[in-house]
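Entry for S-adenosylmethionine complex. Fields follow.
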Amino acid sequence: MSGTPDERLARVLLGWPEEMRVLRRFGLHDGQRLLDLGSGPGVVAAELLRLLPGSTLVAVDSRAEGLPHVWEVPGPGVAHMALLRATVTRLPLRADAFDFALARLVFQYLPRPVEAAREAMRVLCPGGRLAVSDVDRTLSLAVNPELPELEMLMSRYDAWHRDRGGDRGVGARLRDILREAGAGRVETETIRFESRPETAELYLEALMGPRRLRGLREAGYAMQAEVDDFLAARAQWLLSPGRAVSRYLRIACGTKER
Ligand SMILES: C[S@@+](CC[C@H](N)C(=O)[O-])C[C@H]1O[C@@H](n2cnc3c(N)ncnc32)[C@H](O)[C@@H]1O
């Protein structure tokens, strides 16, 4: 991940206070045994433990290289955290071991998200809850003034994702996925969060930062000239006084039946 720990925190946690409010309404509270599925570098995991210091947390990610970054995130919660390298569809964890599981921005990568939800249900205790938050591409981008070069690269990113078995429209299917995985009482919520002019660059960065641009180019989904066009348009866009980016996140939460 690029940037200082503070910059990463800001980029990953756009809209986080509202998301946290929704998660609390869905049953997240202090003192629980938490599971963070597809934790990435653990920014959210560390933030959860900062806000819920009486909880313990297991963070799971299939990529080893992301996890060490978690130790750079300051906070007392790190002492209550265990890191596990595993795939979310096959967790080396015993049944009924967690009260609340969160899968944030990971279902979009999974060819079979129902399997992951089922596996999460297995390790939850009866009455435990699984919250899945993810993008819904039909909603997830509103940029003012228009920035067609970004739209174009986002479409390429969607295609790249799809070709690897993922789905950036998964947010619209979360209720069905949880139901199919056997969850009872599924609740859903859509969060919208909007940049201010001074945070617009951060929002753009989260959507199409240097790492994603490099990935698109290296994987053959964008040409250098297209990246250059985007960067030039972006520089102009950042000068516009009313610049704003709105983003949406779908959250669904289901209960493991007793
Ligand atoms: C966009 S990041 C989200 C990180 C974090 N949840 C957050 O909200 O900032 C997605 C993460 O999911 C992980 N991932 C993707 N497929 C996975 C799988 N099958 N099992 C475990 N982790 C997976 C990736 O390695 C990556 O770290």
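NOTE: The chain is about 35% helix and 25% strand.
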